[in-house]
Structures are given as C-alpha cells and as structure tokens.
Amino acid sequence: MAELLRYRDDETHEEPAVTLDAFLGQTNATAVRLEPDEDARALIPHLDRLGLIEVAFPKFRDGRGYSAARILREAGYTGELRAQGDVLIDQIAYMRRCGFDSFAPEKAISREAADKAVGFYPEVYQKAADGRSPVWALRHG
Amino acid sequence: MYKYDEYDQTIVDSRVAEFRDQVARRIAGEITEDQFKPLRLMNGLYLQLHAYMLRVAVPYGTLSGKQMRTLGHIARKYDRGYGHFTTRQNIQYNWIKLEEAPDILAELAAVEMHAIQTSGNCIRNISSDQYAGAAADEIEDPRPWAELLRQWSSFHPEFSYLPRKFKIAVIASDEDRAAIQLHDIGLQIRHNDAGELGFRVYVGGGMGRTPMIAPVIRDFLPAADFVSYMEACLRVYNRYGRRDNIYKARIKILVHEIGAAEYARQVEEEWAHVKTLGLDPPPGEFERIAAHFAPPAFETGLSDEIDRSDPDFALWLDSNTHAHKQPGYAIAVISLKPIGGIPGDASAEQIELMADLAERYSFDELRVTHAQNIVLPHVKKADLYALWKALDDAGLGTANLDLISDIIACPGLDYCSLANARSIPIAQKIAKRFENMDRQRDLGELKLKISGCINACGHHHAGHIGILGVDRKGEENYQLLFGGSGAEDASLAKIAGPGFNEDGIVDAVEKAVETYRTLREDGERFVDTYRRVGMQPFKEAIYG
Ligand code: SF4
Questions:
Q1: What's the structural domain count of chain A?
Q2: Out of A129, B336, B345, B433, which could bridge A99 as a Cys pair, Cβ 3.0 to 4.6 Å?
Q3: For residue range B516-536, what is the model confidence (pLDDT) as tens digits?
C-alpha cells in the first residue's frame, strides 16, 4: 500500500481496523473498517471510543463512502476518517469536504499534487462536513 | 436573467483551470484514458464514434443574446460550423479536439457558461419550462428555484459519484411542458390550501430501458425546506440505489423496488436529521436570485391586433406562437426542424442570427426547448411579422411546431457510440413523406420521437408515436410505439408489434396516421384517438 496522506496533526492511529461485524462484537476495538454496503449509522453509538474509521472505496465510482463520511461527521465523530482503496487525486477535494482527513490510496498520491487539486476551488456552493462557508452565507454574511 | 457575481465567476473559472490541468496531464500521458474518462465526463466531454463531443450546459434552457452568439462562435471556430440543441435543453458539438476543449470552456466562462456536470453520474443540468417567466398559466417564474438548485448541485461533494446520472426539472404551471414526471425528480411549484408556496415532489420517473412515470412522494414541500429535502432525497438514493447493474441503477428502480411509500418514509427520516444541519440558504438568497428574473420592462397599452394578410405568416403565427402573460406580447418558437433537416441542428450563422433577433425583439432572451427548438419568450405582437420575415429568410421559419415533422430525434448511429440504428435519416424521411404542410396541419398535434437505442435519449416512450432503433441480426431495425406523452397527461408508449426496416417504418407511420384520420372524432389528437380505440385498429392497418 502506498503512503498515507494525512490532514491531521495527531499521531497516526496504530491499531489495525477490524471489520464492522468484528467491531460490533467486541468492546475494546478502537479502529473499524466500513465497506460500501455497510451502514455508517451502526457506528454512531460507539463514536467516542473510535480513533480511526477507514471507509473502503473498492472502485472509485462507488460513491457510498461519501455519504458514510458525512453521516459520521454529522454525528459528531472527530477521530481520523480515512478513505482507503481506489482513491484518485481528483476526488480528494470532494472527500475532504465530506469529512475525510486521511487517505490511503492504492496508487500513491503526492502531498503536493493533492494540495494543488484541493486548492483549485476557493469557493463552494453548499455546506458539507468541512465547516467551509458556502457562497450563499458569504453573500449574506 | 441570472448574472454571475464574483463567487459564481470564481467557481466557473476554477473549473476551467482544473480541467486545463487535467487535459495537460492526459496529453502528457500522466494519467490513463481510464482515469481521465470520469474527469472529462464531469465536463461534458464524450468520446464518440468519430471525435470528441462536448455538451454545454444551458441552465434551465435560458440564454442571453451574447451567450447565444458565443455558441455560434464556438460552432464556427472549434466545430464544423454547427451546433446541436438537445432534449436536455443543452447544446452539443460533435467535432471537438481534446486539446482545444479547455479553450472552449474558457470562452464559455467569459459569458457565464460552462459544461459542468453535463455528463457523469452526478446531478445534471436542471431543466424547466421553456416558457418560464412568459407563460400566461404559471403561478410564478420557476427559474429562480432552478438556479438555486443549480448552485446547490454544482460540485456537490457527496453526490458526484451517484449510482447513475440524476435529472431534475422544475415547473410552475399545471400544463407540463418539461416532462417532469419522466425525471428522477420532478418539482411542481404550487400553493397549498393555506396559500403558502411550496412544491409537489415527484421522484423516480425516467425513460431508458425501463421507463417509469414518477409517483408523488410529497404533495407539499414548504419552499424554505427545499434544499435540505433535496439533500435527503439524494442521500437515500446515494446510499441505497443499486450499483450492481448499470441498467438498474437509476432512482426509478429503487423507488419501484422498495415502493414510493417506503422511499418517502426513508426520505422523511433522513430529512428530519438533515434539516438540523442548516443546509437551506436563507430567504434572502432566494430573493437575491429571484431579483435577476424580474420581468423585463414590458410596454403597456399595446394592441393585440396582428395583421394576418400574408398567408404564410398567418400559418406560422397560428402554429409557432404561444400566449404571453403580458397583453400585446407573444411567445415565439423558432423551429429547428426544417423539412429534411437534422432535428435540433443549427448553423453558426443561424445561431448568431437568433442571438441578434433576441436582442432586437425579445429583451435579449432565448430559451432552448426539450423538443429541440428555440424560443424567443417576449416578442411584441407588432414585431412578429418582421421577426418571421427575418427567420424565414434564414431557413428558420418552418411553421410546424408540435406537428408531425417537429420530430425529436437523438443523434443515433451517425454520431453516438451506443447506438443500434440511425435516427436522423428516419426523421428526415418521415418529414419528407409528410412534406405537405396542409396535410400536417390537418393531422394536428402529433409528437413523434425517435431514439437510436434503448437508452431513449430521443424520448420515444413519451411520443404520441415513438420509434426505437434496435439491432436485429446486425441490421438496423425500427420498432413502432403508440400512445406516449411527456405532458401533464404523462403515459408510456406501447410497442405495436414486430419492427421494420428503414423504409418500412416510414410506411408504417403513414398507415398509422391514416388510421387515425379515419377514426378520429371532433377535436381529437392522434393520441386521444389512440387512447379511445386502443392498439387493435392501428395494428390491423399496419400488419393486416
Ligand atoms: S438513444 Fe441511444 S443512440 Fe440515441 S443518443 Fe441516446 S444512447 Fe445514443
């Protein structure tokens, strides 16, 4: 696996992520991996003990993970939220907006290229999970 | 018309810069075609049979003269002198070079236009009533709401990798000129019993290989909750829409499989949560947008009299104009369906002329219709004759709106890489067969729609007469359908029987039309007679 791209200041979470089933069946795991067809809301009762949620993107076209990320952030999750798999550079900006702050792409993405891709859009049209003010708020600020 | 402020302009300019970078990386070989494909598709760039095709968004079909002129300029400079207006109220160019695509986007951005989300599995260009702001029967102009949706859906981070493409239409009248019940989401602006403004929400309509008419999932959605409710509708779809089979991935399949009531319940549940996130812009933002759509400075006290002494003009007047809400004005429709022409095509010169005429006669506004025609929405009745003269001189004066030769046809096998059969030559042959305008007028309103494959871009399911091109053992074959409608009386057309070859389909259409002529009762359109008598008499005439 290529290098991890992180947008967090804390230490990388060391414990390996377990499957959702395994996580729900044991009380001490602090990292979990969510597949596209798994319900992110199942994690909501356990968010305060989670340090890492890894969301799988087996194919970049499968966009369910974007909703999973927002749901987790909307529920107040502040730990590391990692997109893993077929993650391409041109998706990083959207993923950041949905709340991902860590990326484990199958094919390496340089920090520089990722920053450039994210930097293309100084303004956004809608609220998401990244706290940015949409232009409608700026217009009426 | 909506005018970009600095924020809108920045966003569209950002897109041009980003796409320029992506194209450069592709040309340099840094990314593969496989990786590039989803990126170019997000910018409306398709690889077709012979060249790249670029689809430019015309939000809710509205254009200024200046924008229209730029479309003509692009046709001349980057294409072979033509543009093709589509059933999505957009324009497509069929002969584009990849390396020039970023320059085209830059030229578009300079007149507040773009190709954002005109393809890909995202929320597509928002469509609306082509007579919005002018029609006598609307309760208000639906376009400010469409613009609000355009902004909300542009670069939506959560909904850019949906199971499938997603189309939304907004109207504000009981007469449905935008086929809202055949959209993924159809919205009708209305008042509730208390006189408050809101929307009736239809979800899960569509054409393609499994056509469906959208059920109502909410009879009244208060206007203030518009964006958050859309967010909930899309989130349920993004999470639960099928991704195992591309043909079952549209929202219509989800709504059909779980049922409209269950889908509505899930949306309400999601919405209860989403509503708390403050996603809805304040009323001031809607008012800001709506101010751009204030009615133009109509003259008052104008006469409604029109000099009908030129008989050709009188025919055009009767078929190609529509009632305007302002006395002394009319809505004029420019047919892009000359007999024997390519439906929806216009030359660079014609596009520029229409731009000029809009500036001179229609408060600088044009509309693209889903029937692939162009509307000048606000023409003084006293100017109609001069307008018609100018159009007629340029080959744009065909008086066939909603008649049998006003055919909707997709690009088909002449351009489209998915096609099974050609559509354009069939449209041309049918128009030729019914060339006699007296005969066409006698047949009355008859909506004929042709698709070159089951994807149904030519809306054949919604045709009074529909034609579907299929592949039969390597030969182009055409199925004939009857009884569809995309209007407020929405219905899906039914297949008559075995298909035909190219000449056979033209003969079969003629037999069907003659059957209607024999059976029709006073005032009945083709589709009314079909609905009354059923398929049998038509079948007998065609196959008997
Ligand atoms: S209906 Fe088929 S042939 Fe026609 S444009 Fe659509 S995909 Fe192409």
A1: 1
A2: A129
A3: 999 999 999 999 999 999 999
Nearest to A67 among B154, B158, B278 (CB): B158
**Residue of chain B whose Cα is closest to the Cα of A127:** B279
Q: What whole-number distance in Å separates Cα of residue B141 and Cα of residue B44? A: 28
Domain that holds residue B436: 408-543
Q: What is the CATH number of the domain that holds B213?
A: 3.30.413.10
Residue B487 has pLDDT above 80, yes or no: yes
- Residue A63 to residue B158, Cβ atoms within 8 A: yes
Indicate the number of domains in chain B: 4
User: What's the rounded Cα separation, in Å, for the pair B284 and B115?
Assistant: 28
Residue B447 CA to residue B1 CA, distance in Å, equals 30
Burial zone of A95 (CB within 10 Å; 0-12 exposed, 13-18 middle, 19+ buried): buried
Compute the nearest-CA separation of B266 from chain A (Å).
14
Note whether B220 and B322 are same-domain residues. Answer: no
The closest alpha carbon to B11, from A99, A134, A66, A114, belongs to A134
B381 in the same domain as B490: no
User: Does the CB of A131 have a partner CB in chain B at under 8 Å?
Assistant: no
Separation of B352 CA from ligand 1 center, angstroms? 28
The DSSP string of A71-126 is HHHHTT--SEEEEEES--GGGHHHHHHHT--EEEESS---HHHHHHHHHT-S--SS
What lines the ligand 1 site, CB under 6 Å?
B 410-412, 416, 418-419, 451-453, 455-458
We report the CATH number of the domain holding residue A75 as 3.40.50
Q: What is the pLDDT of residues B210-249, one digit of tens each?
A: 999 999 999 999 999 999 999 999 999 999 999 999 999 9
**Residue range(s) defining the domain that contains residue A68:** 5-139
Residue B64, domain CATH: 3.90.480.20
Residues of chain A contacting B227 with CB distance shorter than 8 Å: 126
Task: Answer yes or no: do B40 and B99 share one domain.
Answer: yes
Per-residue tokens: B113: 């236009």
B367 pLDDT higher than 70: yes
Same-domain status, B282 and B325: no
ipTM of model: 0.97
**CA B123 to ligand 1 centroid distance, Å:** 19
